[in-house]
Amino acid sequence: MRVRLWSSVLMTRVFVYGTLKKGQPNNYRMFESNNGKAEYLGSAFTIQKYPLVITTEYNIPFLLNISGQGHRVHGEIYKVDDQMLKFLDDFESVPTLYQRTVVQLEVKEWVGKTEGEEKVSPGSITDAFVYTTSTCEPDWRSLPCYENYDSEGDHGLIYRRREERD
Question: Of 76, 92, 163, 164, which one is the catalytic site residue?
Answer without folding.
Answer: 92
